[in-house]
């Protein structure tokens, strides 16, 4: 599973609500940032003289004892750190007013684009009075709305979440995942749509990577299964994934093995089935830039190799006895081929859609007998239609420059839907006709804000090596460019993830207080295709950090802000970005919020899903890759004599993707540095996974903490206790 927050349909319904991993805060920062004030008194953190020799290099690891989360000592340390952080955050001026404003922004009514199966429509809704999104269905688009899955009642404390969900093609059943503590680990269930009853037989554990695919008759589904055997080392588990087939009503323990495990913990195994059930696919995926594709007819014993990915990735859609292959092979911004399965050799493939040198192809779908092509042009979305022979038809009419989904619909149905948002436009869902191109509004999110109050700019700046990097800059109209505006710079830079100009309700109080919000489209992402991604991974990872530093320098040079007024934020791989930025160039930044991060890059591959990320980062087991990793590993570059930006570390106690040991060890090193008089807080979200809690109340608390911390750290006037932060 990617480090990136993998957007499920439920999470799309929550786009107005940031995950708890997206927010946190800090202690009484203003006082602690004064040179005359002594360092904070932190919980006692012993260090140990542990030094490893790695490829001839002496690597110190004084806080390795914090890796063992189950030990009583580590549990006590976590409790003390979290209590200190929470107490400091609770006392910050303006925090209560911020919490009130976030309640207005997060408790909203909204709907996602519907997924149609037969004549049944499935979609999520959020409610002003509910903590979690609810999955509904209708018999016909105008049918009566009925609750299908309501995770609000699954546990007393709200810690059990809804993961993936897939309706059968006739719309009569849904297979879905329950995720305790909003973690990646999951259990599959099957329910009958008409009765709402859950099957007592069709219950499948080991569904961490499961993405079910129903057969056309609705009698069973293929899925990825991961054994839960505790004797299997955590870092080896991905290599044990198999593809299985489950027949409804049968004991899952007897599910047929369809594809064996790869035995390689650096790979993912993923299955797919064509809608007509004629073609079964197996992908062996190595990182986010390369995969092999195998196929066969269900019932056949042997798999056939369609293509061996050698530095390229391939995605296959099967429709009417043809394969439509989207790939970056020989085309960094991707192109589309058509393949006849009776002549599948690579030399017989025929190019349908050539690479566009000015836009990057993000995804391909078949809707209404057409190819629907989602592109990014300078990080903003374009959706184009072409015939199944690749002839251009039209570009879908979007409401403006922003982030849109590809069309959601069926291969043989003219009806389709897509979502759209921008920095100043909350999510809207549109219905369109593939044949006519007519577009109409289907649903929209009503937010307590004035979209005309803000300005969005897209700027381009040179990185250290001269590379031209785009960045979005958002602020309230009337901003004076005198270098004094508090600014929050966000970045990710990895795993081919593109940072698009989508709506983010959590930034509104920041903008309304006179702040600037900036999103840098760093190398390592997918904004400009494969070459952009490759330029920010493995031996090129330092380019990502250089792009981020250059963004900070641009914001100061162009008089938006200055270093003492500039905060940085990132989570997961973006947390690594924040850790590297603040240890490499501490003078550029005034504050940092670092969420669910990787920070010990020498040992990251030994924990969680780490080995699956070695194609992105490399591994310290390789001498050359170790040299690169050790050169930027944030944990290993905390210096005792440096004053770092004020740091709010945000962690989650059930993160089974990126082990929270990274956050603990880095915080310990930062707190121990004698020259670092800036505050270092560790806030731990309970009963929460890598993507954070899906409860609105927790998101509100998290965001209130984060922005109260930022207000104080950067010297921004906090809102008055009795006044909400508003856009007027």
Structural descriptors:
728 residues, alpha+beta, five-stranded antiparallel beta sheet, 12 helices, 17% helix, 30% strand, globular, disordered N terminus, disordered C terminus
TL;DR?
By secondary structure, the chain is α+β, with helices and mostly antiparallel strands. Helices cover 17% and strands 30% of the residues.
Notes on the structure:
By secondary structure, the protein is of the alpha+beta class. It is 17% helix and 30% strand. It is globular, with a radius of gyration of 25 Å. The strands form nine sheets. An eight-stranded mixed beta sheet has the order 32-33-35-34-36-37-38-39, with helices on both faces.
Number of strands: 39
- The helix fraction, in percent, is 10-25%
Q: Assembly type of the shown chains?
A: single chain
End-to-end CA span: 42 Å
Radius of gyration equals: 25 Å
Shape: globular
Query: What is the averaged pLDDT score?
Result: 92
Tell me the number of helical segments per DSSP (H or I, 4 or more residues long). 12
Low-pLDDT parts are 1-37, 722-728
Give the spatial strand order of the biggest sheet.
Answer: 32-33-35-34-36-37-38-39
Taking the sheet with the most strands, its summary is: 8 strands, mixed
Strand content: 25-35%
Structural class: alpha+beta
């Amino acid at each position: 599973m990617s480090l990136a927050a993998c957007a499920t349909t439920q999470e799309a319904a929550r786009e107005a609500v940031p995950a708890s991993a997206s927010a946190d805060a800090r202690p009484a920062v203003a006082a602690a940032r004064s040179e005359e004030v002594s360092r904070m008194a932190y919980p006692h953190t012993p260090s140990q003289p542990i030094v490893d020799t790695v490829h001839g290099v002496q690597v110190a690891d004084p806080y390795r004892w914090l890796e063992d989360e189950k030990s009583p000592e580590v549990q006590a340390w976590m409790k003390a750190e979290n209590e200190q952080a929470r107490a400091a955050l609770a006392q910050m001026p303006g925090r209560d007013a911020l919490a009130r404003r976030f309640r207005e922004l997060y408790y909203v009514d909204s709907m996602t684009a519907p997924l149609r199966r037969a004549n049944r429509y499935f979609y999520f809704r959020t409610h002003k009075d509910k903590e979690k999104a609810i999955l509904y269905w209708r018999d016909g688009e105008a049918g009566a709305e009925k609750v299908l899955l309501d995770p609000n009642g699954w546990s007393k404390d709200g810690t059990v979440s809804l993961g993936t969900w897939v309706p059968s093609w006739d719309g009569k059943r849904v297979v879905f995942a329950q995720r305790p503590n909003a973690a990646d680990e999951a259990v599959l269930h099957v329910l009958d749509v008409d009765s709402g009853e859950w099957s007592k037989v069709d219950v499948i554990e080991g569904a961490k990577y499961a993405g079910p695919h129903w057969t056309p008759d609705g009698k069973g589904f293929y899925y990825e299964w991961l054994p839960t055997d505790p004797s299997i080392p955590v870092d080896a588990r991905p290599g044990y994934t198999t593809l299985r087939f489950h027949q409804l009503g049968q004991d899952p323990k007897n599910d047929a093995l369809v594809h064996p495990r790869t035995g390689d913990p650096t790979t993912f195994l993923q299955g797919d089935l064509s809608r007509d059930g004629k073609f079964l696919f197996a992908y062996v995926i190595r990182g986010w830039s390369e995969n092999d594709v195998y196929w066969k007819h269900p019932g056949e014993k042997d798999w056939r190799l369609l293509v061996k990915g050698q530095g390229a990735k391939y995605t296959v859609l099967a429709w009417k006895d043809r394969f439509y292959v989207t790939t970056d092979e020989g085309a960094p911004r991707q192109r589309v081929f058509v393949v006849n399965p009776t002549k599948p050799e690579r030399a017989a493939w025929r190019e349908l859609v050539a690479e566009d040198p000015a836009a990057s192809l993000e995804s391909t779908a078949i809707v209404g007998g057409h190819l629907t092509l989602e592109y990014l042009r300078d990080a903003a979305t374009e959706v184009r239609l072409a015939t199944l022979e690749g002839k251009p038809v039209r570009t879908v009419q979007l409401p403006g420059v922003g982030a849109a989904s590809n069309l959601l619909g069926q291969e043989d149905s003219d009806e389709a839907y897509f979502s759209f948002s921008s920095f100043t436009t909350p999510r809207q869902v549109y219905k369109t006709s593939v044949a006519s191109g007519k577009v109409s509004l289907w649903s929209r999110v009503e937010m307590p804000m004035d979209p005309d109050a803000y300005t969005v700019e897209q700027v381009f700046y040179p990185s250290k090596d001269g590379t031209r990097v785009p960045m979005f800059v958002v602020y309230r109209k009337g901003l004076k460019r005198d270098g004094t505006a508090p600014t929050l710079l966000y970045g990710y830079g990895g795993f081919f993830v593109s940072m698009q100009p989508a709506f983010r309700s959590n930034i509104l109080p920041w903008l309304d207080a006179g702040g600037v919000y900036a999103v840098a489209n760093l190398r390592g992402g997918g904004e400009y295709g494969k070459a952009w991604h490759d330029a920010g991974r493995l031996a090129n990872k330092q380019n990502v950090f250089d792009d981020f530093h250059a963004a900070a320098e641009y914001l100061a040079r162009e008089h938006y802000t200055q270093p003492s007024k500039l905060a940085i934020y990132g989570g997961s791989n973006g947390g690594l970005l924040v850790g590297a930025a603040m240890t490499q160039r501490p003078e550029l930044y005034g504050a940092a919020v670092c969420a669910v991060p990787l920070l010990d890059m020498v040992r990251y591959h030994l924990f969680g899903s780490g080995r699956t990320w070695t194609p992105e980062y490399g591994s310290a087991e390789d001498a050359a890759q170790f040299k690169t990793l050790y050169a930027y590993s944030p944990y290993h570059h905390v210096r005792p004599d440096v004053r770092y930006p004020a740091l709010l570390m945000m962690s989650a106690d059930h993160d089974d993707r990126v082990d929270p040991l990274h956050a603990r060890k880095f915080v310990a090193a930062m707190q121990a540095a004698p020259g670092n008089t800036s505050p270092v807080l560790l806030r731990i979200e309970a009963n929460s996974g890598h993507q954070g809690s899906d409860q609105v109340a927790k998101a509100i608390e998290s965001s209130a903490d984060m922005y109260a911390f930022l207000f104080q750290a950067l010297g921004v006037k906090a809102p008055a206790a009795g006044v909400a932060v508003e856009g007027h």
